[in-house]
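Data card: per-record layout.
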Amino acid sequence: MSGKYEIRFATSAPLEKTLAVMLQVADQGALAGLAEADPQGVSARAAEISGFKAKPMGTLELIAPGGSAADRLLLLGLGKPEALTAHDWLRAGGAAAAQFKSSSNVVVFLDAPGLEVSARQAADFALGMMLRGYTFDAYKTKKKDDEEKLPKKVAVTIVTESHAEAAKMLDDANAVAGGVLLARDLVNLPPNVLGPVEFADKARQLEDLGVEVEILTEKDMSKLKMNAILGVAQGSARPPRIAVMQWKGGKAKDAPIAFVGKGVVFDSGGISIKPGAGMEEMKGDMGGAAAVAGLMHALAARKAKVNAVGIIGLVENMPDGNAQRPGDIVTSMSGQTIEIINTDAEGRLVLADALWYCNDRFKPRFMINLATLTGAILVALGNQHAGLFSNDDELAARLSAAGEATGEKLWRMPLGKEYDKMIDSKFADMKNSAGRHAGAITAAQFLKRYVGDTPWAHLDVAGTAMNSPSSEISQSWASGYGVRLLDRLVRDHYET
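The structure for this 496-residue chain is written out next.
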């Protein structure tokens, strides 16, 4: 529901029949908008009685406050001003939106005493609201009583001195929100609705934003000798697709930057079938491809001044009489041969051909792939960080910095010859699985064999793209992880 909030910035706003949100930093007695929203100062007594100390994201609600034109007051704490980060402004917007409830008109007083609120921070607050407002209920035919009372549209006025500049940044915030919510929708959709063909159709809809989209069919892949991805797909009745998306916002002579996503729309494990418990979550095994699609949406919607390529390999991994077997040997587009040890190590096969194709055709400045690739990364890092593997220190450092800024954090993992030897095969150039030990690393080593000397990073998002922990800006099973991270990377370093 990306259009749930109608947001504007202003220097003042009427308060009749509204929820007034008043921000406060720790160790400061005054609230933003105190004179306008709480002329009798009833919030001070309420805060004292309740013990409200303006700790980060803490809230206190006052209903029918005496002397105020507003129906409700919401006090929102920010903590100590010197500790505030860019991500905290998103969190604050999300924390405020969580308390809107039945209010259809909201006024937010942003300029808390003790703070100088920049236009970027104001826009980030708005973005946090948009992200928190997302729900995925398309397949619910009945709603709870409290859900029935929620307004379909909420008019939000954010009062701040930086209103003019913040209003200019609102389009960018909407673009990024649209990309994140697209990624969430794709991951949340059931696998009987979103197959490879349907996902490719979703990618083609980006043409409305000016993205050039090309869809490769199984016949195209066969001509290109993409036998790695075709091997994964052969057990499914649903044909594979590769979506190639190009946003040309930079100079014509500039080499593009490239993003590649694993799009296994459902992963049964194939012949090496997964345990039944929790298998329904494997509809989210295309979280990497969803993030790439969402990023391309964000870049195009905000008219980013960069040439970018997004490539997503779309397949379904199923057991069947025609399915790939353990022991099979396939020849990838690169000419390198792969012994199939485990058909559940299929994502790296999809990415192998996609990465080689991307590098060969587009000669990009760098390639970043995203994939819900291994359970091993979840064992190592939980769901607080995605795994980062890279052959380029500068790219890795820039990604890590973008992760810290956006709260979509990364932790760099090692690569090395010793790990690479673990995927050598007796019968082929390599095998697709080296077993449990260092599973996330050996998967990255496999991918590294398909990137050549091009700067490259692999993000293993198995713990962060789906079934992610709830936060102020996401209550969804699908997080949309990676869209904001990569948009920030592009914005900070690669736009002309």
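Known properties of this structure: The radius of gyration is 24 Å. The first strand starts at residue 5 and ends at 10.

See the next section for split statistics.
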